[in-house]
């Protein structure tokens, strides 16, 4: 099974759902995707959804990926440190933007979505570079992303229930996650 197709397809579908939620939640003039002189905001979610479905459908075909030879644990640790630095930098820039931009200019939930995208993006980069992901930041990223989407949709009181649902889901799939060995320290093979 091709893990990169599986992860790529999942990310494409998640972004497609996020864009669709934004299109539904925000006024039409806030979401723009111009084709010629006509606004067609549904094109990106449809294209990403189709790409995600194709990637997931073809994830089981082909040959298994092999890990590149000669990667040392110290190199993984150094790369992980650089990726964490980039993640912190993006987070602090966004935090500064949050302090500068008035609340009336940004829809509720946009900042939570930004935090979730940064955390999940960091873990996706770790995964693609064959570095073990952080279960903690993955969990926080999912919670933050889902919380932001529900806030954009006007459902402000769902943060607690969503956190419990995600936590329960993680506990249910924990045996599978442990078997896949996706989470751990960066230095581990």
Strand order of the largest sheet: 1-2
Principal-axes shape call: globular
What's the gyration radius in Å? 18 Å
Provide the domain count. 2
Q: Structural class of the helix and strand makeup? A: mainly alpha
Tally the helices: 6
Question: What order do the SSEs take from the amino end to the carboxyl end, as H and E?
Answer: HEEHHHHH
Give the terminus-to-terminus CA distance. 20 Å
Overall number of strands: 2
What features would you describe in this structure?
The protein is an all-alpha fold. It folds into 2 domains: 1-62; 74-189, no CATH class. The protein has 6 helices and 2 strands. It has helices spanning 3-25, 43-57, 73-100, 110-128, 135-152, 159-180, and strands at 34-35, 38-39. The protein has a two-stranded antiparallel ribbon with strand order 1-2. The protein is globular. The model has no long low-confidence stretch (mean pLDDT 78).
In brief, what are we looking at here?
With 189 residues, the protein is an all-alpha fold. It has 6 helices and 2 strands.
Based on the model shown, name its key terms:
about 190 residues; mainly alpha; 2 domains; two-stranded antiparallel ribbon; 6 helices; 2 strands
What's the layout of helices and strands?
Layout (H helix, E strand, L loop, with lengths): L2 H23 L8 E2 L2 E2 L3 H15 L15 H28 L9 H19 L6 H18 L6 H22 L9
Antiparallel strand pairs: 1-2
């Amino acid at each position: 099974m091709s893990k990169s197709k599986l992860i790529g397809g999942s990310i494409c579908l998640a972004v497609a759902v996020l864009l669709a939620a934004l299109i539904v939640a925000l006024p039409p003039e806030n979401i723009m995707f111009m084709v010629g002189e006509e606004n067609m905001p549904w094109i990106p979610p449809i294209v990403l959804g189709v790409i995600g479905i194709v990637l997931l459908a073809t994830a089981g075909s082909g040959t298994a990926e092999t890990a590149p030879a000669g990667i040392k644990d110290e190199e993984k640790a150094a790369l992980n440190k650089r990726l964490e630095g980039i993640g912190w930098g993006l987070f602090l820039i966004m935090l500064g933007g949050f302090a500068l931009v008035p609340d009336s200019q940004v829809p509720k939930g946009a900042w939570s979505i930004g935090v979730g995208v940064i955390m999940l993006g960091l873990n996706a980069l770790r995964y693609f570079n064959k570095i073990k992901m952080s279960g903690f930041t993955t969990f926080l990223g999912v919670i933050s992303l889902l919380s932001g989407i529900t806030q954009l949709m006007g459902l402000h009181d769902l943060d607690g229930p969503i956190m419990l649902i995600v936590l329960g889901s993680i506990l249910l799939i924990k045996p599978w996650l442990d078997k896949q060995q996706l989470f751990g320290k960066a230095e581990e093979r």
